[in-house]
Amino acid sequence: MEKFTLELLFHIIGIGSASGLIFKDNNLFIIGDNSGFLYEYNIESKNLQRHEIIENTTDNIAKIDKPDFEAITQHDDTLYVFGSGSTEKRNKMIEINTVAKEIRTNDLTDLYSVMQSFGEIKPEDFNIEGAVYTGEEWYLLNRGNGKSAKNILFTIQGKNLTNEFKILSNNYKLPKIKGVRSSFTDAVILDDKIYFLATAEDTDSTYNDGEILGSFIGCIDKKTMKITFTEKISDTHKFEGLTVYKKSAEAIEFLLCEDNDTAELKSNIYKLKLSTHY
What we know:
4% of the residues lie in helices and 56% in strands. By secondary structure, it is mainly beta.
């Protein structure tokens, strides 16, 4: 079979600038980086629900004020939504229990400060865009789209993320497109492998957008923390969300969402079918 296939699966009206998604029980849970809602989309019925995860929010928060939710992960019945940490207003992590319908807000200012110090990242180059939680360890990915281009995967262990944690880090050089280094935009774990997305965007700012030059998928072996492969999957798309959809002996199917960097409330969901024979 081919190494990969990429196809547009469907459109969702009502969500803009999608930056992360989770597939669970035929539902997609989606976040947008300029929204304070968690969106829940049923693939079969095409019904879209909006859950307020910050008070008095809108679908399009002004850039200077937005919480910049860029990463979402899950464990058991709880979803975890992370702000990017790229400004002081973007340091929150929201826990959403999908069964009890309980929401809790955590301030990660201290954690993000320690991560910046440990990873030798200047505050203006700090930008968390991917998160994975195994129930024992957290993996947070810094997108290296700042001037220092630091693509770092942080491993965090401990009882919590607020005052009792231990940090490890691994720095990666990702592929270039037209001389522009790609940078992490999301990740998901499957069978001791961390699959990640990376986009080449012609900017040296974690705040300002640039021309999109293409996106990659890649894989990191969790035991060795080394990249086992990267594959360019698009010349034009800025993919920012990755979740496992289906798996067989021959292929893994992922769902991807795209950040269109506009205020338009429309999101495209893609299916990436990747051969397991890499």
